[in-house]
Design goal:
It contains 13 helices and 14 strands. It is an alpha/beta fold and 380 residues long. The strands form three sheets. Strands 4, 5, 8, 9, 10, 11, 12, 13 and 14 form a nine-stranded mixed sheet that branches. The C terminus is likely disordered. The structure holds adenosine-5'-triphosphate and magnesium ion.
């Protein structure tokens, strides 16, 4: 018999909140998602009470995991700030030097301590959806890997995870010791996506706070191992959810993807402003779908007004990282889980992505954070 939400809630009656109230009656629980033996929910408490609730979160997770039908359980603890209260962490603390050197209290602080073994985390973001952010993130990660950097990729687009498709990953991550997840390896990349844990048909009822907390867990409860760089594919947009995510992840920098049209550029500008607000350096802009290249004759047409992102980058004083044409091969390969950098490494597209990756690497090495540059592994 399939596991139901009600069974999960009944099991949680035996878990007490810090004041002794059974958890389901505290009003802190989100909607419970129970799908194919995988259970997710969040507990939202006041920021000041987070520490007292961490043991409740752990116990809730253990109790749910012990149910006969449950294959995995993810319980997220979310700190909610009361309106008008001081931020739990100042924007200064979100600066890239924060993670390893800053001292922050509480779980938000822990999130900013970085991910053990991971040297640099960079976000790939866009103001607007559908501009090719995930495609760029995957090929950029592969480009960094081709440059000899041990690279991971995290799909933080919890509303519409793409990595399972873009990397044709069907298997589910294994758990290690029942609590930590082992990421998937594909084309030499260490990969994790919330999409691995949710069936495609599952309604995306994740609300903002739950998303953020799930993200923190994906950073901290996954065995990432030693990585020079982790590329994070962010959800589109520059709203509060994205801003908080940007603050939650100890980012060393952000890559903004835009198409050349004015409208996309306005959104890209918002994205840049958002990262600047939280003191995350913008490593640069990539112009995707920069121009159309006919797959038959190779003729190029600037259907979107090529060059917009380069001008915008100049105007805003951020590096321009390169352009990628709108090309059928990129779309077909990408959507088939065969990213061009891995499957057509000698092609012009792969070369374009590798050139972008090299610029990103240079930005990281010459970074402003004072943190050590990524180790460069030279393969024999
Ligand atoms: N340079 C390109 N040439 C041709 N097709 C492309 C290119 N870049 C991306 N695409 C295609 O455009 C579509 C959207 O790309 P992608 O999913 O990477 O965008 P996204 O910005 O991540 O979208 P979302 O906002 O939904 O997360 C996909 O079908 C992808 O294959
Ligand atoms: Mg995407």
């Amino acid at each position: 018999m399939a596991l139901t939400k009600e069974q999960v809630l009944t099991s949680l009656e035996g878990v007490a909140a810090p004041d002794g109230t059974p958890l389901p009656r505290t009003g802190t629980l989100s909607e419970v998602v129970a799908n194919d033996g995988k259970v997710f929910f969040s507990i939202t408490v006041d920021a000041g009470e987070v520490q007292a609730w961490e043991s409740v979160r752990k116990r809730a997770e253990a109790v749910v995991r012990a149910l006969p039908e449950v294959k995995s359980a993810l319980v997220a603890l979310t700190a909610e700030r009361k309106a008008g209260a001081a931020p739990a962490r100042s924007p200064q603390a979100a600066a890239p030097q924060g993670p390893r050197h800053g001292a922050h209290g509480g779980p938000r602080g822990e999130a900013m301590q970085g991910v053990p073994g991971v040297e640099a985390i960079i976000a790939v973001a866009s103001g607007k959806g559908g501009v090719g952010k995930s495609t760029t993130a995957v090929n950029l990660a592969l480009g960094l890997s081709a440059l000899g950097l041990k690279t991971g990729i995290l799909d933080a687009d919890i509303y519409g995870p793409s990595l399972p498709k873009l990397l044709a990953i069907k298997e589910k991550p294994q758990t290690i010791g029942g609590t930590r997840l082992k990421p998937i390896t594909r084309y030499g990349l260490t990969v994790m996506s919330i999409g691995f844990l949710i069936e495609e048909e599952t309604p995306m009822i994740w609300r903002g706070p739950m998303v953020i907390s799930a993200l923190t867990q994906m950073l901290r409860e996954v065995e990432w191992g030693a990585l020079d760089v982790m590329v994070v594919d962010m959800p589109p947009g520059t709203g509060d959810a994205q801003l908080t995510m940007a603050q939650q992840v100890p980012l060393k920098g952000a890559v903004i993807v835009s198409t050349p049209q004015d409208l996309a550029l306005i959104d890209a500008r918002r994205g840049i402003a958002m990262f600047k607000r939280v003191n995350v350096p913008v490593l640069g802009i990539v112009e995707n779908m920069s121009y159309f290249q006919c797959p038959q004759c190779g003729t190029r047409s600037d259907i979107f007004g090529h060059g917009g992102a380069r001008h915008e980058a100049e105007r805003l004083g951020v590096p321009f990282l390169g352009e990628v044409p709108l090309h059928m091969t990129i779309r077909e390969k990408s959507d088939a889980g065969l990213p061009v950098v891995a499957t057509e490494p000698d092609g012009a597209h792969a070369q374009a992505y590798r050139a972008i990756a090299a610029k990103v690497r240079d930005q990281l090495e010459g970074g402003t954070s004072g943190r050590p540059a990524p180790r460069i592994v030279i393969e024999a």
